[in-house]
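Predict structure. Chain length: 153.
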Amino acid sequence: MLIALDDPGTPDVLALLEQHLADMHAESPPESVHALDVAALRAAHITFLTAREAEGALLGVGALSELAPNHGELKSMRTAPSARGRGVATAMVNALLDLARVRGYERVSLETGSQAYFAAAHRLYERAGFVECGPFGRYVLDPNSRFFTLELR
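Prediction complete.
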């Protein structure tokens, strides 16, 4: 598996991101959907990564957004359906946390849904050491959201 910088507008990536957005809108009310579209993922404060097989097949995506010079946020975590159960999400979280450490972040946080659909994501983040916290950045308390954070050492 190769994890590297990529363009969210690449056709296979775009298709996965469109499915991600569709699923987020199917699972959460519109005001509780915080998934980013391609234009937002191209912003200067966001680093977008893909995980691919050696021959190039897309396995998953993830992004790191800079909230402050010492605080990052995980965004747009998604594994391709055909790659689920292969450790792609764990590898992506680890790559994004490594990038956060290189940048000198003291903390990385994230928002995800609270519904049963997101249970696998909750387990992923908890295994990586994230703990639940309150809203951060521009988020507000929302029964459809769960917030997690990880202090980096």
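Summary: The chain has a mean pLDDT of 96.
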